[in-house]
Specification:
With 495 residues, the chain is an alpha/beta fold. It folds into three domains: 38 residues, no CATH class; 366 residues, Alkaline Phosphatase, subunit A, CATH 3.40.720; 45 residues. Helix content is 33%, strand content 15%. The protein has 14 helices and 17 strands. The strands form five sheets. Strands 1, 4, 5, 6, 7, 8, 11, 12 and 15 form a nine-stranded mixed β-sheet that branches. Strand 16 and strand 17 form a beta hairpin. The longest helix is centred in the middle third of the chain and has 23 residues.
Length: 495
């Protein structure tokens, strides 16, 4: 059998593997070439700087004491309107229905739906704001539950990005690049830090969308992909149903002992193949089989809410027992980090209100406000918020000017807006009860303490004990990192 593996391995050799392993037989010239390639770091261009140990991350990470061990990213696909939810701008009301002053536009690029923003009519916030908590944070009446926890939150009101369309902007926020193919934040975390969970993946993704919405976004797999990292670091998507992972149950006539013995034999065969060709995807396959075996018992226990109190379920809202809802996913996120999962990425679609601010925005807030606040409260009550970072936000904001007819309120909308938007964070080493950054008096442009997407990513990694410039992976002849060649840690918001 080993001879057949060796024959297959020879067929599967890459050009570089062939040059490196047969240089002696082909002459001193090829041997010398192999050595030169190795010295230049190109003998295997996709090899990492360091190889993570099983269940652990790259040696040397974390580099310093982390404030956070887990990250829950409540990603709001479609871009929540900052000027209607968290960034209170009285001047919007003053100028409602009037042309936007050209001084705010400054030749900025908008989506093709807006084109030239000059002369667009200002749209005031659609519901009243009020100040809350000791921090005095302004929050719209659309978010009454979030308003009650403002003293646990850090509002970053000076976020900005480059992308003006959804998929590139979401990809940028998740992976540090507008082009698909880079590892997601959760994949970098899994690669660098490993996993604390023995029976669950290090990186789990849950998706949801408000029922009957007309503005849902597509969930592309590359939003949680591993890119050029080995695929065992990609996010594992749980389905929005009572069976979140398919094929966990043993088939007829199979029992646990038989399944375990079969996987042991399969592992031995895969290890023989890996020893011959050194393909990291073989190691991924071994790890996936073993994880799937352990998940046969861990996932049913994870999704069984019978041990949750009635008060807890009530806190998350009426949809909490509906698999696939945002409320259900928020409670699942808490249960996942309790079990050691490193990164939980919730993606909720439907925030793209081009002509539905006065209808579907209300639905989005109804479905997400209470569960988001409940998650923060629940983590805090259980002592989990100290080392769990919660991030809430979308890929950009919405324009302070109207998209649509100012005289037709049921069809009011706002277009994409990358130049200023709001993200809130809680726990995990972030200062509570503060507001960082300022946008101008229309919420159009950042005027104080700007925070770029790469800055947010660098800050998240810093809270995990990682210098964002040091966590790299060699691919196609260069070292890649989440923040590319950009990013600065926002120290002002850290405890």
């Amino acid at each position: 059998m080993e001879e057949s593996f060796r024959a297959a391995a020879i067929r599967d050799l890459t050009r570089r593997q062939f040059l490196g392993s047969t240089g002696g037989s082909l002459g001193l010239g090829l041997a010398g070439l192999s050595q030169l390639l190795a010295k230049e770091g190109r003998a295997n261009e996709s090899s990492p700087v360091a190889t993570p140990r099983d269940g652990a991350g790259v040696a040397g990470f974390p580099q310093f004491t982390p404030k956070a061990k887990h990250v829950i990213y409540l990603f709001q696909n479609g871009a929540p309107t900052h000027v209607d939810l968290f960034d209170h701008k009285p001047k919007l009301r003053e100028l409602h229905g009037q042309p936007l002053p050209d001084s705010y536009v400054g030749g900025r690029r908008f989506s093709t739906m807006t084109g030239n923003a000059s002369g667009k009519l200002v749209l005031g916030h659609i519901e009243p704001f009020a100040q809350h908590g000791q921090s005095g944070a302004w929050v719209s009446s659309l978010m009454p539950h979030t308003a009650q926890i403002v003293d646990d939150l850090c509002f970053v009101q000076s976020m900005h990005t480059e992308a003006v369309n959804h998929a590139p902007a979401i990809t940028f926020m998740m992976t540090g690049s507008e082009l698909p193919g880079r590892p997601a934040l959760g994949a970098w975390m899994s690669y660098g830090l490993g996993s604390e969970a023995e029976n669950l993946p290090a990186y789990v993704v849950l998706t949801s969308v408000t029922k009957d919405t007309s503005c849902g976004q597509i969930f592309y797999d590359f939003y949680w992909g591993s890119g050029f990292l080995p695929s065992r670091f990609q996010g594992v998507k749980f389905r929005g149903s009572k069976d979140p992972v398919l094929y966990l149950k043993d088939g007829p006539g199979l029992n646990r002992d038989f399944r375990a013995a079969m996987l042991d034999d399969l592992k031995e065969l895969n290890q023989q193949k890996q020893s011959l060709v050194g393909d990291p995807e073989i190691a991924t396959r071994i790890a996936q089989y073993e994880m799937a075996f352990r998940m046969q018992t861990s996932v049913p226990e994870l999704t069984d809410f019978s041990d949750e109190t009635a008060a807890t379920l009530e806190m998350y809202g009426p949809q909490v027992t509906q698999p696939g809802s945002f409320a259900y996913n928020c409670l699942m996120a808490r249960r996942l980090v309790e079990r050691g999962v490193r990164s939980v990425q919730l993606m909720h679609a439907g925030w793209d209100q081009h002509n539905s601010l006065t209808t579907e925005l209300y639905n989005q807030c109804r479905d997400t406000d209470q569960p988001s606040a409940a998650l923060v409260r629940d983590l805090k009550a259980r002592g989990l918020l100290d080392d769990t970072l919660v991030v809430w936000g979308g890929e950009f904001g919405r324009t302070p000017f109207i998209q649509g007819d100012i005289g037709n309120r049921p069809r009011w909308g706002r277009d994409h807006h990358p130049y200023a938007f709001t993200v809130w964070m809680a726990g995990g080493g972030v200062k509570p009860g503060i507001i960082h950054g300022v946008s101008d008096d229309l919420g159009m442009n950042v005027v104080e303490k700007p925070v770029h997407v790469h800055d947010l990513q660098a800050t998240i990694l810093h809270l995990l004990g990682i210098d964002h410039e040091q966590l790299t992976y060699r691919f196609q002849g260069r070292q890649f990192r989440l923040t590319d060649v950009h990013g600065h840690v926002v120290h002002d918001i850290l405890t």
